[in-house]
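Worked problem 6 (solution included).
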Amino acid sequence: MKKYTLLLLFVFTTLFSCTTEETTTYYLIRHAEKVRTDATNRNPNLNDAGKKRAANWARYFKNIDVEVVYSTRYNRTIQTATPTAKQKNLPIQHYDPRKMYTENFAAATKGKTVLIVGHSNTTPVFANTILGEAKYKNMDDHDNASLYIVTIVGTRKTSRVEILE
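Solution. The predicted structure is:
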């Protein structure tokens, strides 16, 4: 009887481990509102509204188990990611927006919940690259409220956009 119990336990464990698919969730946002007083400044900081929005993003992600935070190396993206990263006690990892969703990136984030902070011309492109289709257009230059959520379960990919006001 003990042999059969162990055999059944082994079979069920094996079946369960083979049928369980990892879920990867990407939350992609554009940096919050930036200082626009100097059109020649390619690396501005967040303005007061942007600092408030960055804090609002941290409140949004408070009950979400974010495991990794990525940002480009610009002041405004780092400053947007910082409140959430601090809240989660995570370092901000940097990515090159010219090399989005590489095989290495996909492997490093598989099965995780990931926040990615980018720009109006990179955030939807990053979502499209993950999805493998041109679903989203570039964001309006004043859109700092859109949240792209891309979920991968096995080979199935889904996405949606939410607005944080």
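Discussion: The chain has a mean pLDDT of 91.
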